[in-house]
Specification:
By secondary structure, the protein is α/β, with parallel strands linked by helices. Helix content is 51%, strand content 16%. The chain contains 14 helices and 9 strands. It is globular. It starts with a helix and ends with a strand. It binds S-adenosylmethionine. Residues 132, 143-144, 147, 180-182, 185-186, 203-205, 208, 230-231, 245-247, 250-251, 304, 308 line the site of S-adenosylmethionine.
Length: 351
């Protein structure tokens, strides 16, 4: 086939935009870590000298960062004054941690994931996995920061009410296990909303459980605790609700996990599974969002699953049909999509 010069130019332009995007990941993490966005948001318009003074940073670095961020469309530049500022949308996405529009955690987590590239390349050659715990710790923090605003906006107000009879049980006083809880963002949101219920967050990753305990202590008293335990062996039975937030596909043996969940549930209990939004067929996931999920899945989710027993490696874009198979193989009889957002599917399984 003859090479089409116009198409080649178009492709190279697209790739150049992606190279700029890769650098933006590092630039955003710097702006976040060094307080550059917060200072610009609170005190802008600022010159590089003023921003450096306010943040205790070196002006020459700040000057270059400002120009790079203005070229990327992450901050605004006024040529007449030589000063930079954030517009209201940039303030929201780059300084408001509680906003579902906040992108800081996403960049923090994904830049951390990229640091594992040498280990992942080795995994491609050997077929061996790379565990969640083998990543740069910024991945764990970034994941919490990325997911928390979405959970805060949806979990209590939309996702739990979409499950059959669960909110009534939680209001009356139920026992809940949040498995693969990471830093416990979802566990704490539920515990705060339903003070009569008792919540335990489990994760196999001890440093995440330690961090969840610190965050829970800072948030004040509540009927919530965190324990190190894996999805197939966590203790306790008779749970009214077991939740899995964005972690089933990270597990080596999701069928084994499903079986254990069923055994740990009360006879009329519910298993809530939150997974990244995905269609069943690859061709339907070739979207901007699918690009992020498949990319994260190559660096984090698939290697994580391959590092554990069985290594089923569902991937972050498994789709509902594949997840249904896993859940039914675990001995559940009822399964349905309870609801969805542009980013998540919320599945309900009952024994
Ligand atoms: C993408 S993170 C999601 C964390 C948290 N649920 C959230 O939504 O913020 C996946 C989590 O699954 C945990 N995990 C992976 N395999 C596990 C297993 N077999 N048992 C328990 N936790 C596991 C990891 O340690 C990690 O905290």
């Amino acid at each position: 086939m003859a090479l089409d010069e116009a198409k080649l130019t178009e492709f190279v332009h697209k790739a150049l935009a992606d190279i700029g995007g890769a650098l933006t990941a590092g630039l955003v993490v710097l702006g976040d870590k060094l307080g550059l966005y917060k200072a610009l948001g609170a005190h802008g318009p600022l010159s590089s000298v003023e921003l450096a003074q306010r943040t205790g940073t070196a002006e020459r670095y700040v000057r270059e960062w400002l120009a790079a961020q203005a070229a990327a469309g992450y901050i605004e530049y006024d040529a007449a004054t030589g000063r930079y500022h954030l517009n209201p949308e940039q303030v929201e996405a780059l300084t408001n941690e509680d906003s579902p529009a906040c992108v800081l955690g996403g960049f923090q987590g994904m830049l951390a994931a990229l640091r594992a590239e040498p280990k992942i390349a080795e995994g491609f050659r050997s077929g061996r996995g790379v565990g969640w715990h083998e990543h740069d710790p910024a991945l764990f923090e970034g994941t919490r920061r990325f997911f928390h605003p979405g959970y805060a906006a949806n979990l209590v107000s939309k996702w739990l009410p979409a499950l059959e009879g669960v909110v009534a049980k939680l209001e009356a006083g139920a026992r809940v296990a949040d498995v693969g809880c990471g830093h416990g963002a979802s566990t704490m949101l539920m515990a705060r909303a339903f003070p009569r219920s008792e919540f335990v967050g489990y994760d196999y990753h001890a440093p995440s459980i330690e961090r969840a305990r610190e965050l829970a202590a800072a948030a004040g008293p509540g009927r919530v605790r965190f324990e190190v335990a894996a999805a197939k062996t966590y203790p306790g039975t008779g749970f009214d609700l077991v939740t899995f937030f964005d972690c089933l596909h990270d597990m080596g043996d999701p069928v084994g996990a499903a079986t254990h969940v069923r055994e740990s549930l009360a006879p009329d209990g519910t298993w809530m599974i939150v997974e990244p939004f995905a269609h069943d067929r690859v061709e339907d996931n070739l979207t901007p969002l699918g690009r992020i999920f498949y990319g994260a899945s190559t660096f984090v989710c698939t290697p994580a699953s391959l590092s554990q027993e069985v290594g089923l490696a569902l991937g972050a874009q498994a789709g509902e049909a594949r997840l249904r198979e896993v859940v039914l193989q675990g001995g559940f009889h009822r399964f349905r999509r309870a609801t969805e957002t542009p980013f998540n599917i919320i599945l309900e399984a009952r024994p």
